[in-house]
Amino acid sequence: MDAPKEDIVEPNKELALPESIEDDYEDEPDETFIERIIGLTEMFPEPIRDLTENIFTLTEKGVSSFYKFACSASWIFFTSSMILFAPVIFETERAQMEQMQKSQQNQMLLGPGHGSLTSGPGNAPPIPR
């Protein structure tokens, strides 16, 4: 009733492959990822492969078209904004420079205390007595 000790496999020991199988396995070249994918495609039916190819192709074309559109739209937006807003910015800068030059000229003509004063109801110069 005792089982022969040769038939009992201990769980901690690894099963070794015969040397002939190990040698055959080592002689095979490693598969690349693409070769493995191509090999896997053979297990799917032709309609599923065609559908997958069509979905991939349409997705690739859609992403490519969206990228081209985004590039063109951003180029149009930024060049148009430069053309439209650059004159406004230059004109504002020129007006500020003219105002600053007038202020400096008034300060030189009237003295250091009068350059920043403007004629208005609250900013009238004091009347000498």
Automatic annotation (TrEMBL):
InterPro entries: Tom22
Predominant localisation class: mitochondrion
CDD domains xref list: TOM22 (cd22884)
Pfam families associated with the record: Tom22
Stretches that traverse the bilayer: 66-90
Keyword terms: Membrane, Mitochondrion, Mitochondrion outer membrane, Protein transport, Receptor, Translocation, Transmembrane, Transmembrane helix, Transport
Keyword presence, Ribosomal protein: no
Biological process terms in GO annotation: intracellular protein transport
GO CC term (a single one): mitochondrial outer membrane
Stretch list, region Disordered: 100-129
Localisation: Mitochondrion outer membrane
Membrane topology category: Single-pass membrane protein
Family designation: Belongs to the Tom22 family.
Protein name: Mitochondrial import receptor subunit TOM22 homolog
Lineage: Eukaryota, Metazoa, Ecdysozoa, Arthropoda, Hexapoda
